[in-house]
């Protein structure tokens, strides 16, 4: 009996094994006797925001059979083929998807092997593409309002800007150089000033700022338009070596050995400059600068021993001409400005404070309301002095637009 049970049990196991073999092969009728193979997946799939494009990045699958990848978007209505140029996971495959609209996209990346097998799709969602709408809200980096630039005797120009936004990548500055060529320099976000050695003064300087919309963005986006920098005026001192006295009828003559050319001998500390007799007001004197110049200002140094007193000018006019009449009339002259000398302390004559002495020693600057038309000849008409009926002055300088 025991042997019969063993025989029946063995027979049952045999039937079950045969049945399993049959069912194990049943799937082949649906695969046409071919086994499904899924190519390896890409690794670390990521994106970088771009301007009217998206940039997708991934580390390739180590599967050596992968032939290419397909990137799908817009509900699989659009696609782009990407060749599998490497199978090393340490490399990166970078793909640019161009000609996109400003929108948020979803992409699917699928790998294909050389036998046509297809991987499971890998989705990359919320990929933002930037365009004109984003650019419209960008603003150019602000320049420093108080003093946006400085110029130097050597012709160098320095521009000053405020600190930028954290996503600023730089500010492009477009200008014309002295050879009439258009040039561009970039102010980096970590710098607040930039020096331009060859700017052609009198021309326009423009700038625009660039930004990345996201920290790892693929593209820099610039503001929609260039902005014009405030007008840049390069001021230099007129060359005194060209100055000559210009004696006209009705102008005051020299007195006490203090001759007119002393006014441009460069000596601001000597107590000997130009002095007239006591002829009463107004008193005028003239000079030839040797060349036509667009003037911006003049500077006077008072007689050292009589600051804010005696014959130092208190109120005066400056006139200019390119063809002064020889008879000394004023018809051929144009008034450039009227100025008043103001004593800083307001103390009575003969009493000077430290600020009075410091101001006078530095020379007092009188600026025209705007650069003048080019003139060659200057005529000063003193309407009032601090005390007396004569004029004395230690030194003068004239400032003009530089080239």
Automatic annotation (TrEMBL):
<dbReference type="Pfam" id="PF16389">
    <property type="entry name" value="DUF4998"/>
</dbReference>
<dbReference type="InterPro" id="IPR013783">
    <property type="entry name" value="Ig-like_fold"/>
</dbReference>
<dbReference type="InterPro" id="IPR036116">
    <property type="entry name" value="FN3_sf"/>
</dbReference>
<feature type="domain" description="DUF5000">
    <location>
        <begin position="264"/>
        <end position="400"/>
    </location>
</feature>
<dbReference type="InterPro" id="IPR008979">
    <property type="entry name" value="Galactose-bd-like_sf"/>
</dbReference>
<dbReference type="InterPro" id="IPR003961">
    <property type="entry name" value="FN3_dom"/>
</dbReference>
<protein>
    <recommendedName>
        <fullName>DUF5000 domain-containing protein</fullName>
    </recommendedName>
</protein>
<dbReference type="InterPro" id="IPR032164">
    <property type="entry name" value="DUF5000"/>
</dbReference>
<dbReference type="Pfam" id="PF16391">
    <property type="entry name" value="DUF5000"/>
</dbReference>
């Amino acid at each position: 009996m025991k042997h019969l049970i063993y025989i029946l049990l063995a027979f049952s196991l045999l039937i079950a094994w045969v049945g399993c073999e049959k069912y194990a092969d049943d799937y082949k009728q649906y695969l046409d006797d071919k086994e499904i193979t899924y190519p390896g997946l890409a690794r670390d799939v990521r994106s970088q925001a771009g301007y009217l494009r998206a940039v997708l990045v991934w580390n390739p699958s180590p599967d050596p059979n992968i032939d290419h990848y397909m990137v799908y978007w817009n509900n699989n209505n659009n696609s782009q083929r990407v060749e599998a140029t490497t199978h090393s996971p340490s490399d990166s495959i970078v793909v640019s998807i161009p000609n996109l609209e400003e929108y948020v996209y979803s992409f699917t990346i699928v790998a294909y092997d050389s036998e046509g097998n297809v991987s499971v799709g890998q989705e990359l969602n919320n990929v933002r593409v930037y365009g004109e709408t984003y650019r419209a809200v960008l603003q150019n980096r602000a320049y420093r309002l108080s003093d946006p630039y400085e110029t130097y005797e050597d012709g160098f120009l320095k521009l000053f800007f405020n600190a930028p936004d954290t996503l600023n990548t730089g500010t492009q500055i477009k200008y014309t150089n002295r050879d009439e060529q258009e040039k561009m320099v970039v102010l980096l976000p970590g710098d607040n000033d930039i020096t331009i050695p060859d700017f052609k003064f009198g021309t326009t300087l423009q700038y625009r700022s660039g930004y990345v919309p996201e920290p790892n963005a693929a593209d820099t986006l610039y503001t929609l338009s260039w902005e014009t920098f405030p007008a840049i005026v390069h001021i230099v001192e007129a060359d005194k070596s060209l100055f000559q006295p210009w004696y006209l009828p009705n102008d005051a003559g020299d007195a006490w050995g203090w001759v007119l050319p002393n006014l441009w001998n460069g000596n601001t500390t000597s107590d000997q400059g130009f002095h007239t007799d006591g002829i009463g007001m107004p008193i005028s004197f003239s000079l030839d600068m040797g060349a036509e110049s667009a003037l911006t200002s003049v500077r006077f140094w008072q007689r050292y021993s009589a600051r804010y007193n005696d014959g130092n000018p208190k109120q005066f006019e400056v006139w200019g001409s390119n063809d002064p009449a020889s008879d000394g009339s004023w018809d051929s002259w144009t008034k450039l400005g009227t100025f008043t000398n103001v004593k800083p302390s307001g103390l009575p004559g003969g009493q000077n404070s430290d600020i009075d002495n410091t101001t006078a020693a530095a020379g007092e600057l009188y600026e025209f309301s705007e650069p003048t038309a080019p003139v060659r000849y200057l005529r000063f008409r003193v309407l009032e002095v601090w005390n007396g009926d004569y004029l004395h002055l230690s030194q003068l300088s004239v400032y003009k637009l530089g080239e």
